[in-house]
Amino acid sequence: MERFVTDASRGAPPALSGVASWKWYRHYLRDPLDFFSTVQNRFGQLAVLGNPIPLAPSKRRFILTIGAPFNRIVLGRTDLFRPGGQVLRGPRGSAHHRIRQGIFSMYGPHQTADRKMMQPPLTRPSVATYVGAMSQLIDSFIDRWRLSQQLDMYAEMRTLSNWVAAQLLFGSDDFGAARRLGETIEQWLLLDSETRERLSIIDLPGTSFSRLMRKAEEVEMLMKAEIQRKRLARAATPDVLSLLIDVREKTPDALPEWRLIAHAVILYAASFETTANALAWTLFLIAQHPAIAAELQAEIDRGVTNWPPDYAMLDELPLLDAVIKESMRLLPPVAYTFRTPMQEVELDGLTLGIKDKILLVHYLTHRDPDVFANPNRFEPKRWFAAKPDPYEYVAFSAGPRLCLGVTFAMLELKLTVARVMQRVRLSVVAGARIDAGIQLTLRPTLGIPMVVEPQDRRFAAAEISGDLRRLVEFA
Question: What per-residue confidence (pLDDT) applies to 194?
Fold first, then answer.
């Protein structure tokens, strides 16, 4: 058995189980972000929640870990820890069970081989070729806005990200079908979250579990239709879905049809879900920090002298890069992830078994004051000097399973923020309630109401209410 001791070690923590754990599970289901902070304040960087049912035979525990030392072990050792899956397993043979088994939940030789298949269209040279098409999509999207119009910027960024995923990752020009597919995938994931919160595990009419199973069937059907359209179109561009279809047809034993569908579903979901959150939060934080907005506007004015810009031009915008990194540090779309040991290991004196679930809480890792001074403040310029190691800043995960689409996502983020600021000024509606919660991702649960203004450079913050003020310290 391998043993690990971190520099955060206090020795094996006590396990909270049975009746003693009830209030903690309730707290987690009600408000995960506050739960994580409360656990850290009470127990430190490592905590254990056992089975809430007294004398129950199940030995599964939930192990909460916070900080780079745990990330380095768990994310770095893919031979010892596998992904735990972000959605319920579902009954074997069900559509839900099939489509949950995409690239992010795989491990072992098949995962390595499939990841390698997907990489070519997501490398830096390939992504550089998307600049023109992505820039055109962004312009077409902003063309829909009107001055003085109030918009939910979260909903807007979801739509834009869906457009980008549909055309560039999946090569689809049928935006109606693509949007329906994206919305259906989102509904499926939200139903999964609702089902877990309600502890609904019986497939009876009217239950959230039943709705989840039916929605998974709809997702699978729509993705099959999308794949069939791709097969008939035979697009020349090497988008991700076309590449997977080619692999499937040339070597069907290497990539069975159900896994092709699962990869496509999860990639589609990930490609717009996390990016939309990052874009919405970033535009909000820029609007609420006028001095930073003014400096960023000046950098964009100097650096982005033509549209579409040269790909290399974006590398010469350090403040834009820092603004995006800082936004994803404060409000990471993926606030925590799961891993499961593949064999017994010992972590800080605690023996972990193959049924245990490890939670890596990235939201709090990004708030380590020893790494990020003033951790609750939006201070992009910290990135001019800060050099956190890959396990201290994990907005795109870390280790061998680093996000495949990080280069693509950063391009979309930079192009969108730059073009929005060139064309308009967005201001937050005064008195707006901005709440942040975890529903699949760390998202604005009530949206972000913003007004489209002419780009007059009259940046000003608005008074807001809501629980976001717990997470971000505004001046």
Answer: 81
SS3 assignment, position 347: strand
For each of the domains in the chain, give its residue range(s) and CATH number, in order of start.
Answer: 2-471 (1.10.630.10)
Distance CA 414, CA 101 (A): 31
The identity of residue 376, as a single letter, is N
> Cα(191)–Cα(198) distance, rounded to whole angstroms?
10
**Which residues, in sequence order, are bridge partners of residue 339?**
83, 358
Mean pLDDT check: name the lowest of 360-364, 438-442, 467-471.
438-442
The CA-CA-CA angle for residues 328, 122, 408, to 5°, reads 30
Phi and psi of 340, rounded to 5°?
Answer: -130, 130
Give which of 399, 337, 266 is closest to 63, Cα–Cα. 337
Q: Which tokens is 133 given?
A: 């098409």
pLDDT of residue 290: 98
Whether omega for the bond prior to residue 308 falls within 30 degrees of 0, making it cis, is yes
- Beta-carbon neighbour count of residue 179 at 10 Å? 15
Of the candidate ranges 184-193, 403-412, 430-439, the one whose mean pLDDT is the lowest: 184-193
337 forms bridges with which residues in the sheet?
360
Spell out the alpha helix ranges (H) of 288-356.
290-303, 311-314, 318-330
Q: Give the residue from 327, 335, 322 showing the smallest Cα distance to 282.
A: 327
Using CA atoms, how far residue 253 sits from 116, 250, 474, in Å, is 16, 9, 55
Please enumerate in sequence order all residues whose Cβ is within 8 A of that of 172, keeping only pairs 6 or more positions apart, or say none.
166, 178, 226, 229, 230
The residue type found at 347 is L
